[in-house]
Design brief:
By secondary structure, the chain is of the alpha+beta class. The protein has eight helices and 13 strands. It is elongated, with a radius of gyration of 22 Å.
């Protein structure tokens, strides 16, 4: 929703006026409009830092789609996962957030589609409203009905073959660091401690060492680390957008750019060729 309009203030004002002793935490208001995959990435990256019974409201693409001819619509819903609540329109967010994981339960919020006035600001009038009822003591069974399935937005996944991983940049943070969808577990499974080369954007751009922290390289040097969520990240030490330039600016990186990791195990053809 951004921060230039009144929308976020209206959401917080509604919560403060209807719930006592509430703690409101902003994850982000800068998700690109209707970008479910980005919203899922941001929530997935930080929800484990919140206490049990936290209620997350995802106001991205929040207006329901009512399709009376079938089940292809999208409806306000609640996901229960790791003892936390995630309230969103069922527009693909839940599947993108969970990936291969299974929820504890999934619910469709009752009695919201019959009131057309609620559609004018669905994040406030449907999603936040359901969260307020939970915060004020109602059980989930009182406000929603159990459902079996949920939609899954298409998201980029890293793929592997013998001695090779192809991944993509899925997020660029405020510093210009490029976060990929290559997880440490996949890297270790495919690489098996073999030498490797991470290539991105141009053939001349590559990294062949994983560092434990940014400061293991000199300021201004490129660096690859596994971040706190164990995803491969490409960065410039002490570089940032808006100052000296981060990896996004200096390498011309963009969302969905491919990242290629080539491994050269001992005795491989590539290793032999390098001797000549």
């Amino acid at each position: 929703m951004g921060l230039n309009d009144y929308y976020v203030a209206a959401l917080k004002g509604t919560l403060l006026s209807r719930v006592k002793n509430i703690a409101i935490v902003d994850i982000s208001h800068a998700v690109k409009p209707f970008d479910i995959s980005e919203a899922a990435f941001l929530v997935r990256s930080c929800f484990q830092n919140f206490p049990e019974n936290t209620i997350h409201v995802i106001g991205v693409d929040s207006e329901p789609i009512v399709n009376f001819s079938g089940t292809d619509g999208s409806f306000p819903s609640i996901l229960v996962y790791q003892k936390q609540y995630f309230i969103s329109n069922d527009n693909g967010f839940f599947g993108a957030f969970l990936q291969e994981n299974q929820p504890e339960s999934f619910w469709r919020i009752d009695d919201v589609l019959s009131n057309p006035n609620l559609f004018k600001f669905p994040t406030k009038n449907m999603l936040v409203a359901a969260g307020i009822e939970l915060l004020n003591g109602k059980s989930i069974e009182e406000i929603a009905s159990p459902m079996e399935g949920y939609k899954n937005a298409l998201t980029l996944t890293a793929v592997s073959e013998t001695n090779l991983i192809r991944g993509h940049i899925v997020h660029i943070d405020n510093f210009g660091n490029a976060i990929t969808n290559v997880h440490r577990s996949l890297f270790e499974q495919v690489g098996k401690n073999a030498p490797f080369t991470i290539r991105f954007k141009k053939q001349a751009y590559f990294i062949d060492v994983i560092s434990n922290s940014y400061n293991e390289v000199m300021p201004g040097e490129k660096v690859a680390i596994f971040n706190e969520n164990d995803f491969l990240e490409i960065a410039i030490n002490r570089g940032a957008n808006g100052s000296t330039g981060g990896a996004e600016q200096l390498f011309g990186l963009h969302l969905q750019d491919m990242i290629r990791i080539d491994f050269t195990p001992q005795g491989s053809r590539e290793t032999l060729e390098s001797l000549f």
